[in-house]
């Protein structure tokens, strides 16, 4: 899969003092960049695993776990559930590499069995101290993996090749390029976008996950909540549009936002997927910094 990528060596001493998951991921990128000039956009996870001391990666026909890591005598072996889509497989492999690379995880146990819900765990807004250790390591492994599979300088270079305005089609293109799931790419995309953007993942017109940029206006949507009545996402996906992305359309702000606040306009775009899934991009224009917004404002009218 990544046979065209040359062998990588990792200086483990450089990693030794880095306990923090994101710093570890960035240090791995740094070392790869030093060797190859840039991190390949399909991050060579297999080579990284090998260079760190994971001697085997095998796929298993199982429902017991999505990913597993067993460490013995300092050497790791990873198992992955057979049949995962590539983006999800890569994220899971990155997660298991995280358990292996983060020193505090190895101190906790030598055998990790990570379920689908472990791979969805995210950091709560506050009260990290009250999160049990067993869950913390899952969250940290997810954060490590998300950082590892999308190296930011390489991401920005790829993003710059695309048009400036946000477009869901770009999220699909970038996800394919980096070989990650739409969800992993959605997070990177909205948090680094010039515009205020959010992505909502839904199934059967019910919210599964909301991924907003840090300053995006409050959506007030929880997992399980119905997709708002007035939205495009409510109307657009149907058997004839599956596999396609809608245009970006102007929708009433109250279709999605609890409070309008400084929002002047709200735009929505939907990607209708198989099995009732839909991915929705929302962008807003605010009347805060008028000068900066002028261009986009006029382009859109
Ligand atoms: Zn795990």
Tell me what the structure shows.
This protein has 2 domains: 12-149, Orthogonal Bundle (Arc Repressor Mutant, subunit A); 170-300, 2-Layer Sandwich (Beta-Lactamase), CATH 3.30.450. The chain is built from 11 helices and 9 strands. It has helices at 12-16, 21-36, 45-52, 86-101, 103-108, 133-149, 152-160, 168-178, 182-192, 232-235, 290-300; strands spanning 54-60, 67-72, 75-81, 111-114, 196-203, 206-212, 249-251, 263-272, 277-286. It has a 5-stranded antiparallel beta sheet. Helix 3 (45-52) packs parallel to helix 4. The protein is globular, with a radius of gyration of 20 Å. The chain starts with 11 loop residues before the first helix and ends with a helix. Bound molecules: zinc ion (ZN). Zinc ion is lined by residues 95, 99, 112, 114, 118, 138, 141.
Summarize the structure.
With 301 residues, the protein is an alpha+beta fold. 38% of the residues lie in helices and 21% in strands.
């Amino acid at each position: 899969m990544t046979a065209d990528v040359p062998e990588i060596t990792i200086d483990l001493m450089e990693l030794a003092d880095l306990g923090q998951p994101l710093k570890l991921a960035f240090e791995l990128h740094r070392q790869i960049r030093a060797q190859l000039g840039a991190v390949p956009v399909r991050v060579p996870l297999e080579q990284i695993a090998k260079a760190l001391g994971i001697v085997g990666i095998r796929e298993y026909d199982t429902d017991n776990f999505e990913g597993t890591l067993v460490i013995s005598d300092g050497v790791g072996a990873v198992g992955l559930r057979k049949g995962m889509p590539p983006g999800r497989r890569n994220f899971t492999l990155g997660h298991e590499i995280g358990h292996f690379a983060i020193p505090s995880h190895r101190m906790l146990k030598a055998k990790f069995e990570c379920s689908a819900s472990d791979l969805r765990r995210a950091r709560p807004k506050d009260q990290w101290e009250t999160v049990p250790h067993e869950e913390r390591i899952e969250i940290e492994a997810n954060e490590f993996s998300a950082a590892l599979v999308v190296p930011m300088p390489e991401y920005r270079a790829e993003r710059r090749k695309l048009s400036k305005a946000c477009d869901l089609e770009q999220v699909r293109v970038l996800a394919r390029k980096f070989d990650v799931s739409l969800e992993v790419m959605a997070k990177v995309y909205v948090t680094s976008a010039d515009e205020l953007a959010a992505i909502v993942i839904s199934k059967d017109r019910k919210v599964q996950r909301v991924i907003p940029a840090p300053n995006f206006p409050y959506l007030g949507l929880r997992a399980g909540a119905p997709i708002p009545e007035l939205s495009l996402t409510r109307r657009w996906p149907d058997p004839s549009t599956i596999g396609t992305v809608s245009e970006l359309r102007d929708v009433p702000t109250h279709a999605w936002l609890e409070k309008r606040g400084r929002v002047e306009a709200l735009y929505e775009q939907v990607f209708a997927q198989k099995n009732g899934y839909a991915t929705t991009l929302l962008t807003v224009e605010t009347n805060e910094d008028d000068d900066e917004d002028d261009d986009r404002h006029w382009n859109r009218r």
